[in-house]
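thread from #wetlab-drylab

HS: before we spend reagent money on co-crystallization trials with flavin-adenine dinucleotide, can we at least see a predicted complex? here's what I'd submit
DV: go for it
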Amino acid sequence: MEPTLLLAHTEEDGTLAKPALEALSAALALGGELTVGLVGSQVQPAAAQVASTGARILAVTGAAYAQPRYATDADAAEALCRAANASLVLAPSTSRWARALAGVACRLGGRIDTHVTRLTIENGVPAASRWFYRQRMEGVLTRSERPWMVLLESGCAPAFSATPEIAAVEAVEPPPHATRTSVEGIRAPQAGQETIRPDAKLLFVAGAGWTKKQPDGAIHTAEAAELILGFLGAANASLGGSKSLVDLSGEGQAVLPFMSHLNQVGQTGSTPRHPKGLSTCCHGEEPHVVGWRFITERRAINLDPNCGWARGKADVLYLADAFEVMRELNRALNRGEAGGASS
Ligand SMILES: Cc1cc2nc3c(=O)[nH]c(=O)nc-3n(C[C@H](O)[C@H](O)[C@H](O)COP(=O)(O)OP(=O)(O)OC[C@H]3O[C@@H](n4cnc5c(N)ncnc54)[C@H](O)[C@@H]3O)c2cc1C
């Protein structure tokens, strides 16, 4: 097996986050000689996390590498690749690496593949799997060009975990490079307002039915918002939406104000990975359900016995009024009786 370099940037506290630990597991599974290349303002905690693997540890450290920035991230990755001289370079598909590593592959005369979901050895050479055409077809690629850089999607490998040990770290210094970009700060939603939680065990999908006339002839969007947010808070679920629902919000109508196109699941939306999914007031049409490809267990609540979920797309369909079900479920969660909802 070829020598492999795992590239990982550290978090503020110097540790490695879950996507990096998953990529480390994938790199170890390949079985070749492994070097770990760390980038960050401090790297000792991360080095201790990976020390038990026995891998050689290289690091680019300094204040300039604390912030995500193309110029410094690309310089750091290039210097680590040259120092490690590995033919296969693996990195977690974080926004930071996704932005910088294509340029690094170009500088090194190599190639890069992104959105890879699995790495295996086929006939003695590494092979990368990824999905094409909005997750409809899986392809397996091998490449002859080296170095071959591979960005691994999160949620595809178990996160590496071991007792931290004292680790020897070899410092690598990229050549000095003037940067024009200074990071002034980060704008993020206020704590508690973030509804997209990739690590949640449950995906809760809201469809346009929440904003439609209900059997009493009236629209109940305020109650819909309260029920959905109440459930998300109580079950710590991630929020997805159908295209019809997020398009309504985009038009500035007084519908569910916390839904945006970032929540959209489906062919023209995202393909999240959660162990379980619960669809509510959503018809389950193919362009939506194709985004559920990686949801292991699917349940849906719909009033219509002929909805798409009923035609083999859900494991369980509750033919029921989602307002009534969610009202009751939230009550049970608040009484601590429905712990299973979040697990
Ligand atoms: C090229 C293309 C790409 C597309 N990409 C996407 C995509 O990425 N994602 C996506 O979602 N869609 C996508 N669509 C649109 C998709 O085909 C559907 O139009 C859309 O998913 C419908 O959204 P919906 O099910 O929420 O709304 P509707 O079709 O309006 O369904 C609402 C559902 O709510 C149910 N309902 C109403 N009240 C209640 C209640 N009280 N309790 C329980 N159930 C209730 C109704 O029975 C109905 O089934 C795409 C379409 C095209 C042509």
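DV: The domain at 202-341 is CATH 3.40.50.1220 (Rossmann fold).
HS: ok that's useful, forwarding to the group
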